[in-house]
Design goal:
5-stranded antiparallel sheet; globular; 5 helices; alpha+beta
Length: 496
Amino acid sequence: MPVESGSNVAARQAKQKRKSHSLSIRRTNSTEQDRSGLQRDMLEGQDSKLPLSVRSNLLDLFSQIEREFENLYIENLELRREIETLNDRLAAEGQALEGADLAKGALKTKASHSTSQLSQKLKTTYKASTSKIVSSFKATTSRAVCQLLREYVGHRDGIWDLSATRTQPVVLGTASADHTAMLWSIETGKCLLRYLGHQGSVNSIKFHPTEQMALTASGDQTAHIWRYMVQLPTPQPVADVTQQTPCEDDGDFSDKDEADGEAEGPNDCPTVRVATTTLRSHQGVVIAGDWLVGGKQVVTASWDRAANLYDVETSELVHSLTGHDQELTHCCTHPTQRLVVTSSRDTTFRLWDFRDPSIHSVNVFQGHTDTVTSAVFTVGDNVVSGSDDRTVKVWDLKNMRSPIATIRTDSAVNRISVSVNQKIIALPHDNRQVRLFDMSGVRLARLPRSNRQGHRRMVCCSAWCEDNASCNLFTCGFDRQAIGWNINIPALLQEK
């Protein structure tokens, strides 16, 4: 009669243990819904200052955590049983070889190999489970209320840049590839004025800090300074464009929706055709411009690899800022100091210091691996840079050797902006998404893109407006429209 070996007996016992254990797991899962309902009833009966919806979300989250650790504990028990089974089998095989030196070497090798496999499996299991727990936390804490309030439609080509005025009346300005710049009423979405002075794509628009003047940069190798006078229309009742929506919507659009943005430009809009001042020193496309603090000087960035500093009153070239190895992509000035930052396709951005009239220093920063699409100052001592390498980095002006925060995304980042009051970074992406992060790199929200909301093509630029009670964030894209958003970040997230 055949006799069953010791190793087979051990394997069969381990299999029976796993089978009985799996049955206990099924019984546990079958009572999970009853337990969840009981816990919710207990919650409703407890006194708490938290809203019931918040308490319910917390309960769901902790239930998920409990289930994850329960699964980890069960897998750990099963792995321990398998290790014991292997040890018993290895011990039996070692006795059968009667202590030969060759057998000892084989025994050690086999034990080491089995242990390493189990160790790797344990690491993989724990890592995957921990990732699930962390992602569940992120999904819960990244909720914010975002509301699409207004769409500004009228350009005949993509919109490259936009900004809001710093003085009253507060209006929105857009710069488009259709060779025009437009001023819009934020509350009504009506075009107030159209500038027709450029012969090429208008790539940038920035407003004077105290006067009704605009600076536009163009593909015709010039930058224009022009004055405007607008009168805001009487606000009309706002149509119910959308409802308040959590900013984590994964909805998408098809290319068929692009035809919706092909509206004709407003024909009854007043026009300005002649610039007050024309700046002509560049030998290539002027891609961006900005006003220095005080508004007496402007800086422009060009594809001729130089940034120029001009005197506004005389329109004379004061300094030519050279040193970049490739085309410039953006320039920005500090809100309170005579500092300029320029970004370039050479993967660097440079900080130019004009605070001392006799010394004009420059610092080069090489924190990215691809084109630096924009670099902007914050009210404090920080610089935020975005790049085609799909990262955004926050730098401290006092110590620029390494970033204090790095944000990694899944798409190239275009012209970013930082909220003065809330210190939130708005990231427009090539993949039509707009994401919001705080200065420490924690993701706060993603603007909704469902129910025909949001952009249908690349989002080129974002701009915050702290002086408007309703719309406090604007975005524009190559779908020929600008969008005004109301962003409401919960106080708990802002404190973090």
